[in-house]
């Protein structure tokens, strides 16, 4: 009967919701333990100066180690964002980044800046800037070594708040980038009022180069006119690189240069050890 069918549908819908909720809770609990047990790591992808091929910075990208398996952030960041765990995770990333930069400053020449991804919920947390500053100063680091990547979702709800946070960050010496630029729903007019350093062209607009270049060329021109640094994401073919070089995009990241690397591999490939002074008798 219709009544029975309705009930059945309700039961089915409810079961699916319950399964999803349980799956989320399971990831959440496991992630909580992963943070506590340090089963996380940061991989580093070099940011490359396109004209010279030189490394000019690194982006820290989180990985979750489960035995031999490495889990990508796409599988757990969305769950962490739905719970409060994203803030705990973000704090872990900040601390790990500072620890890494301290090590690099002690052991290597010409230490590159590290870009970290901060979720909207964390970015608008009233304690975010103070905690970041206190972590950086406890490791005796120059804040200009850290670049904060946010997405358009960080300022879509409250532009005044976002401006205030970005101003605080800049005043304290940090750099600020808009990540995945062009994929959100923000208005271009926001760009004028946000005191940012960098726009990162989303991989989706690099993928189609050189044939589909309308959005990439708009962003590159915007950057030139507004005096913003432009970084192209996800460069994985030579023809994309050629287009970006010819159109004056200064920086880029992508598999064509390097995948994100475990810290030790990044150090071996991109950092130059400080000359040790030998004592001669
Ligand atoms: P994102 O910040 O836009 O990072 C770029 C993503 O593109 C990374 O994926 C990187 O591995 C991938 N990628 C780079 N070059 C290429 C390429 O040439 N081809 C292709 N196909 N992909 C490329 P990943 O590491 O899986 O991270 C995915 C997203 O997860 C990141 O996007 C970022 O939004 C988020 N995420 C990563 N780490 C963190 C973190 O520590 N905190 C937060 N809140 N989010 C993070
Ligand atoms: Mg990013
Ligand atoms: Mg991105
Ligand atoms: Mg992205």
TrEMBL record:
<protein>
    <submittedName>
        <fullName>EAL domain-containing protein</fullName>
    </submittedName>
</protein>
<feature type="domain" description="EAL">
    <location>
        <begin position="24"/>
        <end position="274"/>
    </location>
</feature>
């Amino acid at each position: 009967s219709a009544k029975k069918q309705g009930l059945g549908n309700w039961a089915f819908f409810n079961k699916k919701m319950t399964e999803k909720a349980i799956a989320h809770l399971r990831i959440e609990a496991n992630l909580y333990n992963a943070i506590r047990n340090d089963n996380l790591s940061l991989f580093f992808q070099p940011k490359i100066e396109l004209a010279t091929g030189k490394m000019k910075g690194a982006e820290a990208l989180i990985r979750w180690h489960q035995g031999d398996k490495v889990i990508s952030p796409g599988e757990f960041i969305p769950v962490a964002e739905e719970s409060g765990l994203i803030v705990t995770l973000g704090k872990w990333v900040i601390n790990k980044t500072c620890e890494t930069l301290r090590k690099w400053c002690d052991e290597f020449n010409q230490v590159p800046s590290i870009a970290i991804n901060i979720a909207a919920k964390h970015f608008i947390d009233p304690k975010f800037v103070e905690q970041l500053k206190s972590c950086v100063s406890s490791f005796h680091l120059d804040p200009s070594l850290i670049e904060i990547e946010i997405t358009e979702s960080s300022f879509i709800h409250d532009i005044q708040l976002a401006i205030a946070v970005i101003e605080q960050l800049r005043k304290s010496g940090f750099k600020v980038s808009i990540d995945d630029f062009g994929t959100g729903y923000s208005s271009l007019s926001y760009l004028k009022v946000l005191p940012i350093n960098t726009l990162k062209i989303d991989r989706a607009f690099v993928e189609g180069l050189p044939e589909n270049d309308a959005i990439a060329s708009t962003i590159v021109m915007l950057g030139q006119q507004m005096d913003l640094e432009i970084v192209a994401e996800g460069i994985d073919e030579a023809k994309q690189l050629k287009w970006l070089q010819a159109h004056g995009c200064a920086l880029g990241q992508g598999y064509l240069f390097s995948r994100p690397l475990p810290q030790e591999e990044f150090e071996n490939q991109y950092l130059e050890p400080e000359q040790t002074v030998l004592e001669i008798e």
